[in-house]
Amino acid sequence: MIRKGLLIAVLSVMSCAFPSPGWSQEYKLGIQAFKGADTAMKEWKATADYLTAKLGKTFTVVPCTDNELMEGVKQGKIDFFYANPAIFAEMNKQYGAQVLVTMVKATRTQPTEYLAGTIFTRKESPVKTLADFKGKEFMTRAKSSFAGWMVAKRHFLDKGIDPEKEFKAIKEAKSVEHVVYAVLNGAVEGGAIMAGTLEEMAAAGKVKMADFRVIDQAADNFPFVHTTQLYPEFCIAAGANTPPALKADVAQVLQAVAPTDPAAVNAKLNGWKKPLDYTPVVECLTIVKYGAFARN
Length: 296
Description:
single chain; 296 residues; 2 domains; five-stranded mixed sheet; 13 strands
């Protein structure tokens, strides 16, 4: 027979991911924890503390995998969430999630509320154009990555090139750095990464910008070399059942976060602004036939 104390402990552990709303009046801030749960807690606890202090209501961080986050929003167990544009767009389409603020990323030059993708090869490669990748091996961190693959795939398709059909292979890697090293070492002919990755690795002394060639490079004022059009950055959104007045309060106080606040410093961002138009994200997901948008 299971002792009563052990049974209580087991039930407690089973409920850790999404505590029952009846136990407290805490509001759950789900975090797309693509860097791991520990890092998510370190980066986002200050934001929850900031919201708690400003609004007089308790906010707690809930690190989630992509699937856990989407399931939590679906079931109404996540009140607010931080996620990439693709996950927000899908949650908006399927479950009525509402974007509250768009992230303003801190960079070494100028803050930006946009992201983009970079299609690149090594400097010595014979590849000079997008079409030159036909019949070649290509790499991305994951085909489920919005900035790391979907925006690049959309760029290829817009140029009349179907990478899924015309490339020899599209390989996935353990990390975005693995993509960069695979291209540098000639293991694959080219790769797609989130814009800013090369600059970040170069600043850390891991690679040299001069060792790479960006294909079909865009000419604009964006702070990173890139290929694709610009898309709105990650956002914080609210579930459909979150009280409207609380949504408005959260949006207002997040827009007041200063670059020097722990909420910004810990999360490595410059602040938050009124939400951008995420229509370009929906257009991209529809073109590449991602998730719920594949059924259009």
